[in-house]
Amino acid sequence: MFAPFGKPGTAPTRHFVVLDGLRGIAAIAVMALHLKVKFVLGYRPEAGLAVDFFFLLSGFVIAHAYWARLAERRMSLGTFVVVRLARLYPMMLLGNLIGAVYFLTLGGKTMTQVAGATVFALALVPLPRLADPAASAYPLNGAFWSLTHELATNFLLAAMAPWLGRSWRFIAFLAISVVALIAVAQAGRLDATIAWQDQAYAFFRALAPFVLGIFLYRLLPAHTASTGGSGLAATGTGVLVALALAAVLFMPIQPTWIRLGAVLVLFPAIILIAARLPEQGPLTALWRWLGAVSFPVYALHVPFVFALDPWLTPILARHAPYATPLFVLVIAALLALATLALRLYDEPIRRWLKRVLARRNAVQAPART
């Protein structure tokens, strides 16, 4: 039942399209939360749990794409770091620069303040707030707290992959990380995000789901078998898991133990079910688009929320009949903007980076033989 970690294998070719769609739904939920969806729903939802879902999904995808090569030392830590930064940094750069422009023009910050925050943001390091520990360590773009800790966990596990190749070691490390997450929950910090004083908690909030995501990928080797065919049952199952995820993310705020159960039990079940669904089906194009646009949505929405908030929040709060259509219109506009950023900026830059890295590898290959 349990596959050995780091077992030999070829480069993965499977694409989990329903998981792509779930990633997009989670990103939209976070955007909706920041856009004050509470005025539409009548309550504040649990959309912050979307970030924990991201961490789980990140572990699953990293395991699929890189874990065997890392564990067998067929991919170096340095190569993995470069590949991950090439994937994430362009959009993080744009999100931070948009945040800097906002604070310089509309946010009331000085050039010195923005310049200092930008240096730390571009270095992917939280801004120290020793004088005010409750202040944001990610002032230009608060969404990047999760990406910073995701990269930290990515790099840590990549460095440990050869040592964690034995199943018992990985299980022990997973158990330790889950215990640490439970300790974070008991400390009342399961919602740790941007505050400087919460960064240690935020790291362990990211670590346990990420490690669990790797475990989920390796748990059932048969999860890659369902790669062909389609049908009403598979499509319906995909819709049901999407609705289940949305229901959790848009439910009212729950006690800590329920939130912890969602992260450790419900979300893993959703991922395992979705991962078994076929790639091709009537909703494949939708799932792929949601997955493609998810990162631009997450990386870019916060500065625009800052800019929209002064006029959007009063309208949503005071004009209930118009709240829902206006909210949907704003969401649609930001999705369109994210799609443009994806097509015109992110994808071309990543294609260029891929060519550069391929040329570099081609030049270095003779020296290694």
TrEMBL record:
<feature type="transmembrane region" description="Helical">
    <location>
        <begin position="257"/>
        <end position="275"/>
    </location>
</feature>
<keyword id="KW-0808">Transferase</keyword>
<dbReference type="GO" id="GO:0016747">
    <property type="term" value="F:acyltransferase activity, transferring groups other than amino-acyl groups"/>
</dbReference>
<feature type="domain" description="Acyltransferase 3">
    <location>
        <begin position="19"/>
        <end position="337"/>
    </location>
</feature>
<feature type="transmembrane region" description="Helical">
    <location>
        <begin position="170"/>
        <end position="188"/>
    </location>
</feature>
<feature type="transmembrane region" description="Helical">
    <location>
        <begin position="47"/>
        <end position="68"/>
    </location>
</feature>
<protein>
    <submittedName>
        <fullName>Acyltransferase</fullName>
    </submittedName>
</protein>
<keyword id="KW-0012">Acyltransferase</keyword>
<dbReference type="InterPro" id="IPR002656">
    <property type="entry name" value="Acyl_transf_3_dom"/>
</dbReference>
<dbReference type="InterPro" id="IPR050879">
    <property type="entry name" value="Acyltransferase_3"/>
</dbReference>
<feature type="transmembrane region" description="Helical">
    <location>
        <begin position="287"/>
        <end position="306"/>
    </location>
</feature>
<feature type="transmembrane region" description="Helical">
    <location>
        <begin position="326"/>
        <end position="345"/>
    </location>
</feature>
<keyword id="KW-0812">Transmembrane</keyword>
<dbReference type="Pfam" id="PF01757">
    <property type="entry name" value="Acyl_transf_3"/>
</dbReference>
<keyword id="KW-0472">Membrane</keyword>
<feature type="transmembrane region" description="Helical">
    <location>
        <begin position="232"/>
        <end position="251"/>
    </location>
</feature>
<feature type="transmembrane region" description="Helical">
    <location>
        <begin position="16"/>
        <end position="35"/>
    </location>
</feature>
<feature type="transmembrane region" description="Helical">
    <location>
        <begin position="200"/>
        <end position="220"/>
    </location>
</feature>
<feature type="transmembrane region" description="Helical">
    <location>
        <begin position="88"/>
        <end position="107"/>
    </location>
</feature>
<keyword id="KW-1133">Transmembrane helix</keyword>
